[in-house]
Amino acid sequence: MVDVPFDTVAGVPPAEVGEVELYHPRSWWTKYVFSQDAKVIAVQYSITAMSIGMVALVLSWLMRLQLGFPGTFSFIDANQYLQFITMHGMIMVIYLLTALFLGGFGNYLIPLMVGARDMVFPYVNMLSYWVYLLAVVVLAATFFVPGGPTGAGWTLYPPQAILSGTPGQDWGIIFMLASLILFIIGFTMGGLNYVVTVLQARTRGMTLMRLPLTVWGIFTATVMALLAFPALFVASVMLLLDRLLGTSFFMPTLVEMGTLTKYGGGSPILFQHLFWFFGHPEVYIVALPAFGIISDLISVHARKNIFGYRMMVWAIVAIGALSFVVWAHHMYVSGMHPYFGFFFATTTLIIAIPTAIKVYNWVLTLWRGDIHLTIPMLFALAFIITFVNGGLTGLFLGNVVVDVPLSDTMFVVAHFHMVMGIAPIMAVFGGIYHWYPKVTGRMLNEALGRFHFWVSFLGAYAVFFPMHYLGLLGMPRRYHDIGETSFIPASAHDLNAFMSVAALIVGFAQLVFLFNLIWSLFKGKEAGGNPWGAASLEWQTPETPPGHGNWGKELPIVYRWAYDYSVPGAIRDFVPQNEPPAGLSAQGSHP
Amino acid sequence: MAVAIILLLVAVASVLFHIFSPWWWTPLASNWGYIDDTITLTFWITGAVFSAVVVFMAYCVFRFRHTEGRRAAYNPENKKLEWWLSIGTAIGVAAMLAPGLVVWHQFVTVPADATEVEVMGQQWMWSYRLPGKDGRLGTSDARNVSSDNPMGLNPDDPAGKDDVVIQNDDLHLPVGKPVKVLLRSIDVLHDFYVPEFRAKMDMIPGSVTYYWLTPTRTGTFDVLCAELCGAAHAQMRSKVVVEEEKEYHAWLEKQHTFAELSGQRDVAKAAYKTGSE
Prior knowledge:
heterodimer, A: mainly alpha, Cytochrome C Oxidase, Chain A, two-stranded antiparallel ribbon, 15 helices, B: alpha+beta, Immunoglobulin-like, 2 domains, 6-stranded mixed sheet, 5-stranded mixed sheet, 6 helices, 21% strand
């Protein structure tokens, strides 16, 4: 056992940059609507993301109704089913998870956790939200355009995405691409802010290796997003040009409903490469903030330092870097050159190693801890189970030859829901239960929270664990109705019905959660400044909820890492990051 | 306590579900048993890791849950342990990757004696083409597609004249003979998917993709489309009949060549014009 002296820095260097004058809102509008305060923007992002997420949740109920009881609901036909899966996937991955983790958690936590007064470019930060809102409005508008939203699948693969055999070919696809372009513009403004704030606005003493892992996760994910989203941006623009101006970036010579089109010379595979060059990092853009949040939740609620902090940081960075060289594992059966399979299978399985290290370090943090089974801790445990489950099935799909029979089946659907649906959502919920007291000053209701947790975790597991076996059986994905086959037994339909019922119950639990969010805002127990006894900076603000500028008169000074829990010899079982070591004055002036 | 038990139950239930699940892969009908073996191996390794992690977690929750006066240990790092875990993981990963890559090498290496079969996808039906007596498939192009020539074969290519064209009907394959399946599409992406064969590959307009297999047992198997291709994706069905050599040849005799089909159409057209029918 090596004890690493994390507080070797005896003092804190004097500030190199003086305080910058903060923008102060002068009216109700600039304080709560067109606000430049990252905390308000965070709440705006979160509410918008959860609202559009509710739409995606309802779509999932409709899909499950159709899959569980095909033919029963006359208002769902094949076209609508395809529109539902497309919008559900797109909303959940981009407009909910990406926006909530980076725009929501990122905006709220980065300035507070690094000890800054706000993001470095508050005005751009505000613009970021409003462009995001516009993207969401355009996306929602596709439900009302003639022909409805696009049904091309969330991957939007051409040629079918822009040909007449696919629903939403008229307006849906155009609105979808326009919305994506807007989203990326908005995200870029926010993302630059998060990166520059982490690099430039950390308070005195907050070295990079003293940052909470939540910040590391969000920071790395944002850097990745800034590099990955441009690929989606150009792909969207090119596809839009193919659709509107008749260019042929992705369109070879082809026949549309028996008639030769004017397209020719383009490559459908090119779109897939661009899409997945974005799409795979996107998985980690969602996963890394979740990794960070889970690390912090486990540490705080097990009253124990995160195990192997430095390894955790390097694992995040390694995963972030590696995730840019694995994208074509989504394309093993796409018809690309088969020899690419050797390379991408190898890189993909290598990424399992830093990911496994993170899992080991989470469970080793529990070892000899003082585990408080609070709701955030329960969600963290559920995250580990669902993430490990989904991560391990990733080893099936990443191993090129194993992917061949399983690709495009329900196994894939089960895998990615487990690993980047359920697991990150568990982290989102855990994070909300954990930080809600800081945001509102009140605790979320405990009984409702526990109900929400058990139903969501066990219910979602009951939906997606058995789903793997339907895929193994050979049931293809994106089928509204499997119809007659020689190989799917009647019992598979019963399983589908069971999964649908479970999904509806899980859906109901989310309404309880929403109710809890609103009810506790008024009736929740008063939280105080630091209800969990957490050591990181956001819990040390002079006011709760933190006021404009976060820190009152003086910025905090950081003397230690964020994980001083149960330090031998300390009186309390946590030492806040800004508590000076014995013998050093609180002013922190360097001797 | 309850939480620890539930976590443990999740692991136990998952393993039991796996063992007793009646939903399992279809009986194999091709030479790709190695793929099934690799999946089985992967299940063993990942199943062991999953169980170990969840059981360890459940134990921690049981043993180290908060009680009055309990205090956590303080141990920031353990370099040795972290390295051993990394090395162990790397070995497990290599144990899955190495056989996977070996089998993939077989999958992408088509044997020299494989006969070619072409599968063409279009919204929303399958067509098939077999080389005729010359053993070669003629060229094709989406520009040639017409109601007379739905597969878009090149009418000027002599190699294509004797190609056997099968439309709106099942594909037959002889058992035990390696087949290189050439995959083509004239409109959007499709994927020729026969669950019992295990093999699968997208078809892309503008390119020809392929995979190979040897059918190992006779029978009739469903063909589905595995790549989303629009509104009737789920209804794009066909069948593959694998049969003994003799029956296969009897079936082949009854099929028509491209030249015959074009000829028939010409005859029909001429007859229509002269009004004799």
